[in-house]
């Protein structure tokens, strides 16, 4: 009963945080816009509803775009779930995404292979490099006690500038007007699921499969149990005989591996050349997704859909009203604030704990009386 109550409470707490974040966004929209109701319509309704005069219809193409936006963020969200479950706040997913995409692009350009093998090898190479990006802050934490939050945050920019050096000086296609690589081989491209320029690739199905695999890994394997136990109480895990250091390193490598895979699939599915010149932002979005999912990989698709829906709504809002698309940053920050605040609805949580304790005491007393008779 208590577990059921806490699950319901966590769901209601998450819903309250989302509604408060949207309320904060609405306040800013009313303060900044001359047409706030049109802006809110574009933000909240237009991503799935097409308005043409008096005609209202379901917008299938927009849904495809939302699903396409989910692809990289599902991978980074899964990566953050694994890393944060071990109670290590590794922020290296952003650098892992960019590094994974860059390495996958190089494999797609310079390693000709058959169509069935080429994207698999490219994505796996990108994922391995992504794992190394998050592995370095983990090793620094385990070996010398350096803060993984600070070192991973800084290492994101180290990875970015290393990539930019090689992109500008080694792999750039000088025949183009902007800095980018040569085109990928057609055999390396991840094909689209839906024709018509929606950019929804088979990477979406791969992401759903990886969600299932990650969930089974975290909740049905010994390694997943160790990662979660270390996150709950590392001292207990240590005295239980678990190898805390190696498990921490494993969790951080897996998180970077998943993030790098997301970057590789995004680059090979959405682009024809590698042309990222700055951190793409998918790693930061993955942190918000993991917070929304409460580090449970099974909930990552739902959190990713919600944020992709808002992202699409902000794009439409900036196009059809006078509110800029950067409003998504305010919404994400508000969600992060309410979810991360331990005191948010703490009184309700305390009441549930007290009620459960009273119910258990009453049940024990009733059982004692019955046995005495």
CA radius of gyration is: 23 Å
The geometry reads as globular
**Tally of separate helices:** 14
Q: Main beta sheet, described?
A: 2 strands, antiparallel
Strand neighbour order, sheet with most strands: 1-2
Order of helices and strands: HHEEHHHHHHHHHHHH
Could you please describe the fold and organization of this structure?
The protein has 373 residues and is an all-alpha fold. It has helices at 2-32, 36-44, 60-85, 93-110, 118-144, 148-169, 203-220, 222-232, 234-239, 244-270, 282-292, 300-320, 327-340, 346-372, and strands at residues 49-52, 55-58. It is built from 14 helices and two strands; from the N terminus they run ααββαααααααααααα. A two-stranded antiparallel sheet has the order 1-2. Helix 1 runs antiparallel to helix 14 (346-372) and helix 3 packs antiparallel against helix 10 (244-270). The model has no long low-confidence stretch (mean pLDDT 87).
Task: Give a quick set of tags describing it.
mainly alpha; 373 residues
Task: Give the secondary structure arrangement, pairings included.
Elements: H1 2-32, H2 36-44, E1 49-52, E2 55-58, H3 60-85, H4 93-110, H5 118-144, H6 148-169, H7 203-220, H8 222-232, H9 234-239, H10 244-270, H11 282-292, H12 300-320, H13 327-340, H14 346-372
Antiparallel strand pairs: 1-2
In short:
The protein is an all-alpha fold. It has helices at 2-32, 36-44, 60-85, 93-110, 118-144, 148-169, 203-220, 222-232, 234-239, 244-270, 282-292, 300-320, 327-340, 346-372, and strands at residues 49-52, 55-58. It is built from 14 helices and 2 strands.
């Amino acid at each position: 009963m208590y577990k059921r109550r806490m699950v319901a409470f966590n769901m209601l707490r998450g819903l309250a945080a989302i509604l408060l974040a949207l309320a904060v966004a609405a306040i800013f929209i009313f303060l900044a816009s001359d047409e706030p109701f049109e802006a809110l319509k574009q933000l909240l309704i237009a991503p799935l509803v097409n308005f043409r005069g008096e005609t209202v219809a379901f917008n299938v193409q927009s849904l495809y775009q939302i699903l396409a936006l989910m692809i990289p963020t599902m991978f980074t969200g899964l990566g953050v779930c694994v890393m944060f479950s071990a109670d290590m706040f590794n922020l290296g997913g952003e650098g892992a995404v960019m590094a994974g995409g860059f390495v996958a692009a190089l494999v797609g350009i310079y390693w000709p292979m058959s169509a069935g093998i080429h994207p698999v090898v490219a994505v796996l190479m990108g994922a391995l490099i992504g794992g190394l990006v998050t592995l370095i802050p983990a090793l620094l934490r385990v070996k010398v006690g350096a803060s993984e939050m600070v070192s991973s945050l800084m290492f994101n920019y180290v990875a970015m500038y290393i990539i930019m050096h090689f992109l500008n000086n080694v792999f750039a296609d000088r025949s183009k007007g902007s800095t980018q690589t040569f085109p990928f081989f057609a055999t390396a491209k991840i094909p689209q699921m839906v024709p018509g320029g929606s950019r929804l690739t088979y990477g979406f199905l791969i992401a759903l499969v990886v969600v299932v695999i990650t969930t089974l890994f975290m909740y049905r394997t010994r390694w997943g149990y160790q990662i979660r136990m270390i996150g709950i109480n590392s001292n207990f895990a240590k005295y239980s005989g678990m190898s805390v250091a190696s498990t921490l390193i494993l969790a951080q490598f897996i998180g970077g591996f998943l993030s790098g895979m997301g970057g590789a699939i995004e680059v090979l599915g959405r682009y024809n050349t590698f042309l990222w010149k700055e951190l793409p932002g998918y790693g930061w979005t993955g942190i918000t997704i993991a917070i929304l999912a409460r580090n449970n990989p099974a909930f990552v698709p739902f959190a990713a859909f919600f944020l992709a829906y808002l992202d699409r709504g902000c794009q439409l809002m900036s196009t059809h009203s006078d509110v800029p698309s950067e409003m998504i940053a305010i919404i994400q920050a508000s969600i992060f604030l309410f979810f991360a605040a331990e005191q948010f609805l703490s009184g309700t949580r305390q009441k549930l704990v007290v009620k459960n304790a009273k119910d258990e005491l009453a049940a024990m007393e009733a059982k004692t009386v019955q046995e005495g008779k």
